Amino acid sequence: MNKEFKSNTTTHKLINLDDGKVMIMGVCCKTGEDYSTAAFDILGYMSWYLDKNSIQECLPELNDEDREFLISGLSPKGWHELFGEAE
Fold it and tell me: What is the pTM of this model?
């Protein structure tokens, strides 16, 4: 079963994968383009989303770009359009 939820900026879909993991698919709030995260553990996600624990601690398997998408709705391309290249 796939669930939809509204983040601060956009709608994401929580997709159940065959291996017991999940991923998030959604639209970047800046570019309007689809973006998908890598697979991650649902319990870690729920700990972050519901309990407001640190996303770095709860979802260490995700890279910075995927975690930023969960927090703000910005894909790596959207982040670059807003803030430019990292120095």
Answer: 0.82
24 CB-near residues (< 8 Å, 6+ apart): 12, 13, 14, 15, 36, 37, 66, 69, 70
Could you give the maximum distance between any two Cα atoms of the chain, in Å? 42
Nearest Cα residue to 62 out of 29, 33, 9, 21:
21
What is the rounded distance in angstroms from the CA atom of residue 73 to the CA atom of residue 63?
Answer: 15
At 9-22, the pLDDT tens digits run 457 899 999 887 99
Helix, strand or coil, per DSSP, at residue 70 = helix
